[in-house]
Amino acid sequence: MKRVRINKGKTGLVFRNGDYVKVLSAGKHWVRYTDKVGICNMSQPLSLSMELNILLQDEELAKMLTIVEVSDKDLVLRFENGVFTGVLSTGRKACLLERPHQLYL
Q1: Phi, psi (5° rounding) for residue 71?
Q2: pTM of the complete model
Q3: Closest CA to 46 of 8, 2, 97, 82
Q4: Which helix (H) or strand (E) holds 92?
Q5: Given 7, 18, 27, 89, which is the most exposed site by the fewest CB atoms within 10 A?
Q6: How many other C-beta atoms lie within 10 A of the C-beta of residue 97?
Q7: Got the DSSP string for 16-85?
Q8: Maximum CA pair distance of the chain?
Q9: List of residues 6+ apart from 36 with CB closer than 8 A
């Protein structure tokens, strides 16, 4: 077993043998030594190396995510506390939104 610390404003995704297992909130957690933990910044869109539908099967993680679908002809501007923070391009995006964000099409 190994101990993992997730800082405030971040979330951990636990993977075992390449398969998603669970989500970790801020705090200290014990995971298997062979588990991989990906740390995600809650102020940035998730960059995923796996199918989003697999992650959405976890109800706890699904509650934390905001899913945005951007069509080919659209562009989404992302603002945090009234300040421009980025652009979401074409595709289906998952965002962990801890703080108030605004998305404009």
Answers
A1: -80, 170
A2: 0.78
A3: 97
A4: strand 91-96
A5: 18
A6: 15
A7: ETTEEEEEE-SEEEEE-TT-EEEEEETTSB---SS-HHHHHTSHHHHHHEEEEEE-TT--EEEEETTEEE
A8: 48
A9: 14, 15, 16
**Which of 1, 2, 25 has the alpha carbon at shortest distance from 13?**
25
pLDDT tens digits for range 47-99: 777 788 888 899 998 888 888 888 998 888 888 778 888 888 888 888 776 55
Query: Which residue matches tokens 């998603």?
Result: 20
Altogether, the residues listed in the chain come to a count of 105
Comparing C-alpha atoms, which of 46, 99, 105, 42 is closest to residue 78? 105
pLDDT of residue 20: 92
Q: Tell me which residue of 97, 6, 96, 103 sits closest to 47, measured CA to CA.
A: 96
Report the run of H or E that residue 15 belongs to, with start and end. strand 10-16
